[in-house]
Write a structure and sequence with these properties.
With 372 residues, the chain is mainly alpha-helical. It has helices at 2-20, 23-32, 35-42, 62-69, 84-93, 106-111, 127-150, 174-205, 207-212, 218-248, 257-281, 285-302, 314-320, 324-336, 342-371, and strands at 53-57, 80-81, 98-102, 119-122.
Length: 372
């Protein structure tokens, strides 16, 4: 037993030394847990953010002037007044996301009780702004025109008033949600890549044959790769939470960090076993990369990190319960956002342990066939 443990430790140290000489893998680890998390979280659209808008003012009236001055940062950039002949050219060139055309005699038609039409052109290739921008512009136009016609700004009286209290994220900042989600995605991605690449690299370099003539078992080789690569991912994710999420992005962590790391360790155990399984099925690094795309994208998209599971079809929700990162996302959000304890997240911990054990059993069987 002591000899077996010593073999596992020494083989794991060998994996760490091999990783330390792989500059591209080191760069990927640093990038995935720092720059990638920061940029992806900051790039999440809050609502509109300095959307480019141009206005064709053919009326030149007080009401059209009110409309022009109603668009201002941070939702819109300062409106650019253009002629009608410039509107299509600027839209084709991608200079404007929105182009508003106020027709002649617009104010006169309003005061006469008619219903004049304002044309709004939207560049729908800018999807994140196009979907929400039209509603914002319509609300701004209705507000300004109603105030002009009524000679005052009035607030609508409703029979029921809602007292809204946003828990866990009082500012409704998508950066808070995005930062944690990106850390989870990086943990999932790197856990699979590091172990799978380590096995493929040994086969391509011919060192797997050297291991076979040593007094070590496939179990020891497999466990050494899992603990060494898992330790790297666990340390990197811890540093990312402290220095990137809490430090640079100023996202508060409400729950227990040690409890989260326990869940992360179980998720890493399951994902590293999955990485070994995929590597044994792949003949080379390019084939492993193709398998990784087929597996990783559904895991990331359908696990609840990008889209809430409740909005998915029931059959997808049921299938994705077999994925370890589905339970890890539920656990991480409960701990880090809501401050939940072990009494709340224990079902996810048990699920991660069970799924990890199954994946480890599959990987050790596949690994033995791979060595044979």
């Amino acid at each position: 037993m002591t000899m077996r443990l010593a073999n596992i430790i020494q083989l794991g140290i060998k994996e760490l030394r091999g990783l330390s000489r792989d500059s591209m893998m080191l760069f990927l680890i640093v990038y995935a847990f720092s720059v990638s998390i920061y940029t992806a979280s900051r790039a999440l659209p809050e609502t509109l953010n300095h959307a480019a808008i141009a206005i064709v003012d053919e009326d030149q009236s007080p009401v059209s002037s009110r409309v022009v001055t109603a668009f201002y940062p941070p939702y819109f950039s300062a409106p650019r007044l253009i002629s009608q002949s410039e509107m299509d050219r600027r839209m084709d060139a991608g200079a404007d996301t929105f182009a508003l055309d106020i027709p002649p005699d617009f104010q006169r038609d309003l005061l006469a009780g008619r219903s004049p039409t304002i044309q709004l052109n939207i560049d729908a290739t800018r999807m994140t702004q196009a979907f929400t921008g039209g509603g914002y512009i319509q609300a701004i136009l209705l507000g300004e025109i109603s105030e002009f016609l009524n000679r005052y700004r009035s607030a609508s009286n409703v029979p029921v008033e809602l007292a809204l209290r946003a828990r866990y994220n009082p500012e409704l900042s998508k950066i808070w949600f995005g930062a944690i989600t990106n850390v989870i995605m990086s943990i999932t991605m790197l856990s699979i890549i590091l172990t799978g690449a380590a096995l493929i690299r040994e086969r391509e370099h011919g060192t797997i044959e050297h291991l076979l003539v040593m007094p070590v078992t496939p179990f020891e080789i497999l466990v050494s790769k899992i603990w060494s690569m898992g330790l790297v991912v666990l340390i990197a994710s811890s540093l990312s939470l402290i220095f990137v999420v809490q430090g640079l992005l100023s996202v508060p962590i409400n729950g227990s960090m040690p409890l989260f790391l326990v869940g992360a360790a179980l998720d890493i155990f399951a994902m590293t076993a999955l990485g070994i399984f995929l590597a044994t099925r792949a003949g080379s690094m390019p084939q492993f990369g193709m398998l990784l795309i087929l597996v990783l994208i559904p895991l990331q998209v359908l696990s609840g990190g990008v889209t809430p599971r409740e909005s998915m079809p029931p059959i997808i929700q049921g299938i994705m319960l077999a994925a370890p990162n589905t339970h890890f996302i539920m656990l991480a959000q409960s701990i880090l956002f809501r401050g939940s304890g072990l009494d709340v997240v224990w079902p996810q911990l048990i699920a991660l342990l069970a799924i990890g054990a199954i994946l480890f059993w599959l990987s050790i069987r596949s690994f033995r066939k791979f060595l044979a």
